[in-house]
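Please decode residue identities from the backbone states below.
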């Protein structure tokens, strides 16, 4: 029969061991914030301040205006004003430049005559994703420039400007992330990496350490049930992880200026559920291995690999193909990443939140059930 008193005894013992062991204190409170900041600053998805080399062989007001519009955005900065194509080539080869723009002679004259005036744009394509983003940015700048050039030409021709043509005048508005800041998308998703790795590590090490020290024999010989033992070990580490989440939340809001449009209590609630899910992974690993080294390696592989590859943290799930998208549904990390982003940026509603919380609860119950089945109060 379940005894609340025995469970509280395990909890008090676990709290004392956590405070006494500075390795556990650092692992529980310091390391998660450090890892979060390293990932948040290191996994930069924004493409900004790209170094650009310009070769302006026309040197007219029209070419200078194009250069001015290019560098009026936050995406490009002038690094080189070249005098030959070879300088642009050498800059891209050395990595000093990410983009080269060559404006040929006669650029303004052709525009004034209503003709196409080709320019050359060279993009460093070594990193395909960055090259695609760079191409979309410069295409946007050139589209805006072309629109103004056409409008001026039509006014000079007596047509009356672009308004006389009619047609589509699209006004594009970005919801939830108007500035298209990558940190708004990445910072909330990174909660998952910290909240799955460290609670799982703490859970697995707390049991395996007792196996190595032999102190778990006292548990085997006591009236303590395996349910009381696991629950007593779960709550102290779950509460310390939830406390650590407060620091991560403040980092996202203050350091990375991510807007928060949801309900903080809802976010805390789903995070606590996810922490229990992470700890269920750690406890399940702890009943399978006997050493702390094996526990750390197994837990890290079981949490980080699915977290990075199949959660949609870096690459959207829709871009991964049907097989990978199906695999992603088997991991709680996928749903927690979605929850963090939805609650932070959209606010979310009860239906969407429950749609993502229920699978995490199901995985948690299943893993704890497997842990109780595998945990034997005897020496194997």
């Amino acid at each position: 029969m379940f005894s609340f008193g025995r469970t509280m005894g395990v909890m008090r013992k676990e709290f004392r061991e956590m405070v006494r062991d500075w390795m556990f204190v650092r692992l529980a409170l310091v390391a998660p914030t450090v890892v979060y900041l390293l990932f948040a600053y290191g996994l930069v998805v924004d493409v900004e301040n790209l170094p650009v080399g310009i070769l302006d062989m026309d040197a007219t007001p029209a070419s200078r205006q194009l250069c001015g519009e290019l560098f009026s955005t936050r995406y490009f900065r002038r690094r080189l004003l070249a005098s030959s194509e070879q300088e642009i080539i050498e800059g891209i080869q050395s990595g000093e430049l990410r983009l080269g723009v060559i404006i040929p002679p006669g650029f303004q004259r052709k525009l004034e005559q209503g003709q196409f005036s080709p320019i050359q744009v060279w993009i460093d394509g070594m990193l395909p994703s960055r090259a695609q983003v760079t191409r979309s940015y410069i295409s946007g700048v050139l589209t805006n420039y072309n629109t103004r050039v056409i409008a001026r030409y039509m006014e000079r021709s007596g047509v009356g400007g672009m308004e006389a043509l009619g047609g589509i005048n699209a006004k594009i508005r970005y919801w939830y992330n108007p500035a298209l800041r990558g940190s708004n998308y990445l910072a909330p998703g990174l909660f998952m990496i910290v909240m799955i790795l460290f609670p799982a590590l703490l859970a697995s090490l707390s049991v395996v350490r007792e196996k190595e020290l032999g102190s778990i024999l006292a548990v085997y010989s006591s009236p303590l049930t395996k349910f009381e033992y696991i629950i007593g070990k779960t709550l102290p580490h779950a509460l310390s992880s939830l406390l650590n989440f407060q620091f991560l939340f403040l980092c996202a809001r203050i350091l990375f200026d991510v807007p928060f449009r949801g309900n903080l209590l809802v976010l805390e609630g789903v995070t606590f559920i996810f922490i229990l899910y992470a700890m269920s992974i750690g406890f399940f690993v702890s009943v399978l291995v006997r050493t702390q080294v094996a526990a750390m390696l197994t837990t890290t592989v079981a949490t980080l690999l699915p977290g990075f590859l199949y959660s949609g943290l870096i690459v959207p799930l829709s871009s991964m193909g049907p097989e990978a998208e199906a695999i992603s549904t088997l991991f709680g990390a996928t749903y927690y990443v979605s929850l963090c982003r939805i609650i932070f940026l959209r606010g979310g509603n009860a239906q969407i939140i429950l749609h993502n919380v229920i699978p995490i609860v199901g995985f948690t119950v299943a893993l704890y059930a497997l842990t109780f089945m595998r945990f034997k109060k005897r020496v194997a």
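Observation: Residues 164-169 have pLDDT under 50 and may be disordered.
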